[in-house]
Amino acid sequence: AQSVAQPEDQVNVAEGNPLTVKCTYSVSGNPYLFWYVQYPNRGLQFLLKYITGDNLVKGSYGFEAEFNKSQTSFHLKKPSALVSDSALYFCAVRALNSGNTPLVFGKGTRLSVIA
Amino acid sequence: EAGVTQSPTHLIKTRGQQATLRCSPISGHTSVYWYQQALGLGLQFLLWYDEGEERNRGNFPPRFSGRQFPNYSSELNVNALELEDSALYLCASSLPRPRDLNSPLHFGNGTRLTVT
Fold first, then answer.
1. Tens of pLDDT along B84-100?
2. Are strands A104-105 and A87-95 parallel, antiparallel or unpaired?
3. DSSP at A87
4. Across the interface, do B42 and A107 touch by the CB < 8 Å criterion?
5. How far is A73 from chain B (nearest CA, A)?
6. How far is A71 from A66, CA to CA, in rounded Å?
């Protein structure tokens, strides 16, 4: 079975400081990993994905994520946070050979960037 | 290109009634997914349709059902509404398997269902 854990319900960071939102996963075989962001009263927007290749993936709005196979982690990072980054962030996973298994999401982490 | 569209935006029902939610996928996408986002529970997978067939179903009771039409749009029906069905219902679309495996889902803005 596939699963995703986002251990922090809430992350607070000062504007201009680096931010990290944590994600660990569990799948059988190789994973496809995704990060999404959700602003109030909106659907989820795709930020970035890891499929294969370089462990450091760059995405939209200056975000990046590092895939670590040994730690089964895919943490989201940004060097300098903006107040406008405040939102709900979701990590998601599916296995390479997942058949008819859908994308599985974590419970989300609320990021608050304080001016 | 037009994104995934969902209607209505908001829906208020009383307990025991039925609700119908609608979704139109991005042009060229044949797969439609439904997720429930209840407060504090993250996204829970409900249903997945592809080419008119149900591919998978999440751990929800049978009163949650749906269908996909020949134009790939989809309906989610919830019968005998209960208070705990109050949530944001999100629809997403994608290319069909296997092309969707390494592609992101595209989400609509959701339907906020309130059951009183």
1. 999 999 999 998 777 77
2. antiparallel
3. E
4. yes
5. 18
6. 11
Q: Retrieve residue B8's tokens.
A: 């209505």
Residue B83 in tokens: 């208070």
pLDDT in tens, B38-70: 987 789 999 999 999 999 999 999 999 999 999
Structure tokens at A41: 């009263």
**N-to-C CA span, chain B:** 37
SS3 content of chain A, % helix, strand, coil (to 5): 5, 50, 45
Say if A59 is an interface residue toward chain B (CB within 8 Å): no
For strand A104-105 and strand A44-50, is the pairing parallel, antiparallel, or unpaired? unpaired
Is the alpha carbon torsion for A24, B92, A95, A55 positive or negative? negative
Q: Could you tell me how far CA A43 lies from the centroid of its own chain?
A: 16
Across the interface, do B92 and A44 touch by the CB < 8 Å criterion? yes
